[in-house]
Specification:
With 237 residues, the protein is of the alpha+beta class. It has 6 helices and 4 strands; from the N terminus they run ααβαββαβαα. It is globular.
């Protein structure tokens, strides 16, 4: 009986075509230990949040909403792994599957004044980057924000110019962000945000074909009808 898994050469091809994680997954399924438990909880060296738009848009206001959303989400992930970012990258992409449209895929890195996990500072840097790379007359299909040059918040290198007053600002910032995260964890993700997102914005995902969320959303629970209820419903139609 032939072994169901590909030979070693096959895993090398998987690594070249996909990634080292794919190769490790196949080897793990074979019973070859490749992943240490600590590897799964290693802090990321960079954090990216991005998403393709429900429909293409060339409006700056729509792109600003998408960048704000990704920047806030990235800052939350940054705080979750107790890291600080030294720089923020913002990128835009047009639809590469539409060769009939002009293509433009810019990106820009903005260095932060100090390593931070404060959503406000990250939002400001992301907004500056977007203003510099945005060009009208293009239809953008994707945008994203990446946190770069991450460092452990407990191993931050302090400046010789720091004073007791400058040390108070990060402490107040950390307390504010911790309060926001605690409220969002208790009341639901997105309860507390900096500036509400625009409703029905082009960058929102289209979910017309999504299956009902029977087990996670009270408003979408399955409904049971009796024969009498079904008859009344048909008559009303």
């Amino acid at each position: 009986m032939k072994h169901p898994w590909p030979p070693a050469a096959g895993t090398k091809r998987l690594r070249r075509k996909f990634s080292v994680n794919m190769e490790r997954t196949v080897l793990e399924l074979r019973g070859v230990s490749c992943l240490e438990m600590n590897d799964l909880f290693e802090p990321k060296k960079r954090i990216m949040t991005s998403r393709s738009f429900g429909s293409s848009t060339g409006q700056l206001s729509g792109l600003q909403g998408a960048i704000r959303h990704h920047a806030q989400r990235g800052a939350e992930k940054l705080r979750a792994q107790k890291s600080l970012a030294r720089a923020v990258l913002v990128f835009l992409k047009t639809d590469r599957f539409r060769p009939d449209q002009p293509q433009y895929s810019p990106s820009l890195v903005v260095e932060l004044e100090r390593p931070t996990q404060d959503t406000r500072e990250i939002l400001h840097a992301a907004s500056v980057a977007l203003q510099k790379i945005y060009r009208p007359h293009y239809k953008y299909k994707k945008a994203g924000v990446m946190m770069l040059d991450l460092t452990d918040q407990h191993r931050q290198q302090l400046s010789l110019l720091n004073t007791p007053q400058t040390d108070e600002d990060p402490q107040r910032s950390q307390q504010l962000m911790a309060t926001m995260d605690a409220l969002n964890e208790k009341m639901g993700k997105g309860t507390v945000r900096l500036r509400l997102p625009e409703k029905n914005a082009p960058w929102h995902l289209r979910c017309a074909s999504r299956s009902p969320r029977y087990t996670t959303n009270w408003d979408e629970l399955m409904r049971a009808y009796t024969d009498e209820d079904a008859i009344k419903k048909r008559k009303s139609i």
